[in-house]
Amino acid sequence: AGWFQKDYDEYGYEFGTGPDRVRALRRDLPIIKDRLARLNPPPVRDMPIMVGGGGEKVTLRITAEHADIWHGFGDPDTLRHKNGVLDRWCAEIGREPSEIERSGGVPRPQWDSLSYGDAMLEAGAEQLTFGLGGPDFDLTVFEPWIAWRDERNEGRG
Predict the structure, then answer these.
(1) 127 and 93 in contact (C-beta within 8 Å)?
(2) I want to staple 20 with a disulfide (CB 3.0 to 4.6 A). Which of 14, 16, 54, 89 is the partner?
(3) Could you report the per-residue pLDDT of 7-46, keeping only the tens digit for each?
């Protein structure tokens, strides 16, 4: 559905309202999935669909119906709650919740707090994202995070 008006302007799409964009997402995801399934030649792997957002009545239901990855926003408590809502939608439509990978963002004020990462994992995040900005990137801030990730992935096949 999108949230960044500049993207819509760049491609010449009408930005509309948030509810308009979510309705378009609900309408268009089955069409997109059908079209991806008919690509010739086919992709070398399934192309994952990611849905971001936390609307409990519509967005998380769309996520349960269509997404391979869900990106949630908010602190660990919010993420934990939204994961529960998503799991309930999965149960309602008959989908295994573990089929949807869970993602969450680490806000800049928490970049020095590896324990925040632990809390996000405990809340159900399987991958973490960091908004870098740009165009100049100082990636040295992520060296501790990379070590943190590698430590948690030791022994996992």
Answers:
(1) no
(2) 16
(3) 999 999 899 999 999 999 999 999 999 999 999 999 898 8
Please state, in angstroms and rounded to a whole number, the distance separating the CA atoms of residues 126 and 101: 7
Both tokens of residue 135? Answer: 């165009």
Q: Would you state the pLDDT for residue 157?
A: 61
- Rounded mean pLDDT for each run of 10 residues along the chain, 157 residues in total: 89 91 93 93 91 96 97 97 98 98 95 96 96 82 94 82
Q: What is the pTM (predicted TM-score) of this model?
A: 0.89
- Three-state SS annotation for the chain: CCCCHHHHHHHCCCCCCHHHHHHHHHHHHHHHHHHHHCCCCCCCCCCCCEEECCCCCCHHHHHHHHCCEEEECCCHHHHHHHHHHHHHHHHHHCCCHHHCEEEEECCHHHCCCHHHHHHHHHCCCCEEECCCCCCCCCHHHHHHHHHHHHHHHCCCC
pLDDT of residue 46: 87
34 vs 29: CA distance, rounded Å? 8
Look up residue 53 and give its two tokens: 């957002």
